[in-house]
Amino acid sequence: MAAANEDKPKRDTYRHGNLRNALIEAAVELARQGGPEAVVLRAATRQAGVAPNAAYRHFADRGALLHAVSQAAMAQVAHTMEAEQAAVPPTEDPAAGARARFRAVGTGYLRYAQEEPGLFRTAFHVPGDMTDAAADTAAGATGKTPFELLGDALDGLVDAGLLPEDRRPGAEFLAWSAVHGIAVLLIDGPLRGLHPTQAYDAGQHVIDMIERGI
Question: What does the angle CA 60 – CA 65 – CA 69 come to, to the nearest 5 degrees?
């Protein structure tokens, strides 16, 4: 069977730009199953049905492909956070609405980590700084990245009088660190054996702590 797969005809019908997208889609599936370590150029070309050398027309090396997959995964994080916010019931209480939207950001982040652990790991595998924190390639349907969605939610808390303005600077990093920490503990650490209900409650308690702390 392995020989048959290796002899599989290669596709050469991709139009300009389509091959890049096909390779990213293939690599996303690899990351979904095996995390960042599974994103390999040869495996992505095999899955896309093209010759191995074809990838180098669009990606200089594995790192470039991994970066593209990281951005695609980050965009999925943003979509999940947006979905949580969209599910917030309407309210005429500005403070309650701002608080619910803030909590939805953290809840969506944790939901994605637990539903797509391989892609979540890949989303934060590269880069090593905040260079792409506002990149279009990492944005959701609203055009905002996860980091920007968190910032908007914190601004909403300030506008609603729930977060003092002098405590707003840098609050993204405090909130992000806490939620990311529990996410990693739930998918890779000693909390990964928790029942889903317990895992959800643990995440909500962390968000409670963040609300009180900021």
Answer: 160
